[in-house]
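re: the backbone from monday

yeah here it is again, tokenized this time
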């Protein structure tokens, strides 16, 4: 039985996700997707490349930089530069090749594309591992997540199974400096998004099937609560769309065995992870995204079974479309947003 959403997040019923148009990238695992000022999709793939491609018209894939690691979450800044959470190298800032004035690039980790700058790779002296998702405020403050202090990105399933709850939400002040830990003990910290007025920041706790909110201003500043809970799948990346809608990529439905395992003693969880660690990961071939309002009520519940596109980890609304990314697939997909086409 599919778990129900919480009372504050109920919706009238699911909708059908329109047909998906694939855009091949020549790379695997475009985990997150964002759109730049010119309306082009930017994503990162497993070999470290940051790619740019138009969402409509002929497919033309450009490489704009190489991080030298594994790029995950992305955020486009007002000046055109791109924040990148690299699971191996930390929080980076990329200046796309077209904006550098040179085809060779410069700076630490740059490849044949644009320049790559490391903004943060340690927290309180500890190496920053599994840097996952990022959002930037209007004043230049950067909010980003680290999913686990025990597991790296290639062993993300181990974090879900062992339930170490060592994820963190971090803040980097304008102009750089030492990252500040805003929330600790998160259950697989993942996507992060700011409210339209930046009064709060929300983080996806993938292992807990919820979005946790931290108030940044107003009478509740500094308080933590739950924006939405008991989600029907694993929340991945988050993004903000029209009318303050928060889009949630659901990487997969909730499996009963995992729900049971996560309530088992620690020794059982660790033994189960050792047993499945060598096995291939085969997520169900289903695609689903949610769009919730600022109060946690579901505005969109869009799904397509047997879509041929698995493990949706990124979602972004742009120009009447939804753009989806995946940790496993070899490209992104685009579809019309129902009611906005």
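seq for it, each position gets an aa:
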């Amino acid at each position: 039985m599919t778990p129900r959403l919480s009372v504050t997040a109920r919706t009238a019923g699911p909708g059908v996700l329109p047909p998906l148009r694939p855009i091949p990238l020549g790379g695997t695992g475009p985990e997150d997707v964002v759109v730049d000022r010119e309306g082009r999709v930017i994503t990162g793939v497993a070999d470290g490349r940051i790619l740019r491609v138009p969402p409509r018209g002929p497919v033309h894939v450009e490489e704009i930089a190489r991080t030298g690691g594994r790029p995950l979450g992305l955020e486009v800044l007002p000046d055109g530069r791109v924040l990148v959470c690299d699971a191996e190298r930390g929080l980076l800032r990329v200046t796309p090749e077209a904006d550098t004035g040179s085809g060779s690039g410069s700076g630490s980790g740059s490849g044949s594309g644009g320049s790559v700058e490391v903004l943060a790779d340690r927290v309180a002296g500890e190496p920053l591992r599994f840097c996952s998702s990022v959002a930037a405020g209007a004043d230049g403050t950067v909010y980003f997540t680290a999913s686990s202090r025990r597991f790296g990105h290639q062993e993300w399933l181990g974090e879900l199974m062992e339930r170490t709850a060592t994820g963190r939400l971090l803040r980097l002040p304008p102009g750089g400096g030492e990252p500040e830990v805003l929330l600790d003990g998160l259950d697989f910290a993942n996507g992060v998004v700011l409210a339209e007025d930046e009064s709060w920041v929300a983080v996806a706790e993938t292992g807990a099937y919820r979005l946790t909110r931290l108030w940044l201003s107003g009478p509740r500043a500094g308080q933590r609560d739950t924006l939405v809970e008991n989600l029907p799948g694993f929340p991945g990346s988050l993004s903000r769309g029209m009318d303050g809608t928060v889009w949630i990529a659901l990487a997969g439905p909730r499996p009963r065995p995992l729900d049971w395992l996560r309530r088992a003693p620690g020794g059982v969880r660790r033994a189960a992870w050792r047993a499945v660690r060598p096995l291939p990961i085969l997520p169900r071939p289903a695609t689903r995204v949610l769009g919730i309002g600022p109060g946690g009520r579901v505005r969109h519940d869009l799904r397509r079974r047997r879509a041929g596109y698995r493990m949706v980890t990124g979602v972004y609304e742009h120009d009447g479309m939804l753009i989806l990314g995946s940790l496993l697939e070899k490209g992104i997909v685009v579809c019309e947003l129902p009611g906005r086409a």
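Residues 9 and 297 are 4 Å apart (CA to CA). The chain is about 5% helix and 45% strand.
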